[in-house]
Amino acid sequence: MKEEIFVTKPYLPPKEEYMEYLDKIWETRHLTNHGPFLMEFTDQLCELLDVDNCLPMTNGHMALEMTIQAFKLTGEVITTPYTFASTTHAIVRNGLTPVFCDVRESDCTMDPDKIEALITDKTSAIVPVHVYGMPCDVKAIDAIAKKHNLKVIYDAAHAFGETIDGESIVHFGDASMFSFHATKCFTSIEGGCSVVNDQDLMLRIYQLHNFGIMNEESVAYVGANAKMNEFQAAMGLCNLKHFDEITVQRKAVVDLYMKLLAGVKGIRLLDYNNEHIKFNYSYFPIFIDKDEFGMSRDEVYDYLLKNGIHARKYFYPITSEFECYQDSGFRGDVSIAKRLSTMVLTLPLYPDLATDIVERICELLKTAGKKGKLK
Ligand code: T4K
After folding, report:
1. Per the CB 3.0–4.6 Å rule, which of 176, 201, 245, 339 could disulfide with 156?
2. Domain spanning 243-374: CATH 3.90.1150.10
3. pTM
4. Which numbered atom of ligand 1 lies nearest the CA of 180?
5. 15-101+108-240: CATH topology
6. Is the C-beta atom of 183 inside 6 A of ligand 1?
7. What does the pLDDT look like over 216-256, one tens digit per residue?
8. Does the beta carbon of 194 lie inside 6 Å of ligand 1?
9. Could you identify the atom of ligand 1 that is nearest to the CA of residue 7?
10. SS3 of the chain
């Protein structure tokens, strides 16, 4: 039977490395609630991200929800619908109204030229997404935010470890969060992290992620439980040691895809050829133009699946089209995001994805196009 290939396969460190941490957990019985591995993980993350403070949490979604909550925002938040459910849900679950801004055709990130038209006297923040690890136009977004006195909270779930002109991606905006989910380029099983550049805010996020508790006798905020446990922190510590080599391997897979799919009519690829950005090679989306390619995105998805390749439609549908938001009345013209979401297919990408499998996927794509045209 042919091996089934999934969109990703989590990286796991050598088992002995994790076992060493487990032995220590068995000794200390410190399982969660600000344990020693979490402290060590926090320090190492701060170093890698070039920040004074950050807070690892149980998952990326809670990191986003808690970070937004800490800003005590009101009214409307301008955001992108071309993302995972988490981004929009985190805004709505904070009692805020998302206003959807369209994205750029080139990289699927929020189009800065379309932000100002959406600002009203109710707008309090912008929540853009570095989708697929493609950095937003941070300078343009930050300039608009300053002009209108808005906060910028980046959903950087896909952008761990990236830099823009040598600067850590978290140096832009008022806050950022990452996801360390098993499907991400850097994982702590489940996990996430919040980064803000203001010490008081960081403290508030810390309190919020632990039920709003200030001390044994005082609870100041309606918080939640988003604490990262020691098993997650240990996995994070192990994987941090391998992050550079993982990125090199991921890049090799992306380079091979780029080479093999270059020039295939009807398939558009993202542009990784940008000397200003250090990418982490999180995802490999392709955009299929049905008329030029000869087959629709959905037909290609089915064709790959029949051949054991589980590509994914990240991100379809866009969040503004979700059933749960049908009667919400949320506004925004998102025609480009909507069109891209019907064209996108995210191909398998993980560090040890074998060369011959990438070659097979590309060959299947090339023949899929021809099959479509013969119909
Ligand atoms: N913001 C953005 C922009 C995000 O993309 C996300 C998460 C978040 C915020 C929130 O962060 P977290 O709270 O999740 O930390 C996955 C992930 O669950 C999710 O983390 C991610 N974005 C999203 C884009 O993808 P699913 O439902 O598509 O994953 P699933 O379970 O279908 O996994 C995909 C494939 O990966 C499977 O077919 C097989 C493989 N896999 C998966 C897991 C979990 C494995 O081989 N082993 C595994 O353990 O959402």
Report:
1. 176
2. yes
3. 0.97
4. 15
5. Aspartate Aminotransferase; domain 2 (3.40.640)
6. yes
7. 999 999 999 999 999 999 999 999 999 999 999 999 999 99
8. no
9. 35
10. CCCCEECCCCCCCCHHHHHHHHHHHHHHCCCCCCCHHHHHHHHHHHHHHCCCCCEEECCHHHHHHHHHHHCCCCCEEEECCCCCHHHHHHHHCCCCEEEECCECCCCCCECHHHCHHHCCCCEEEEECECHHHCCCCHHHHHHHHHHHCCEEEEECCCCCCCEECCEEHHHCCCEEEEECCCCCCCCCCCCEEEEECCHHHHHHHHHHCECCEEECCEECCCCCECECCHHHHHHHHHHHHHHHHHHHHHHHHHHHHHHHHCCCCCEEECCCCCCCEECCCCCEEEEECHHHHCCCHHHHHHHHHHCCEECECCCCCCHHHCHHHCCCCCCCCCHHHHHHHHHEEEECCCCCCCHHHHHHHHHHHHHHHHHHHHC
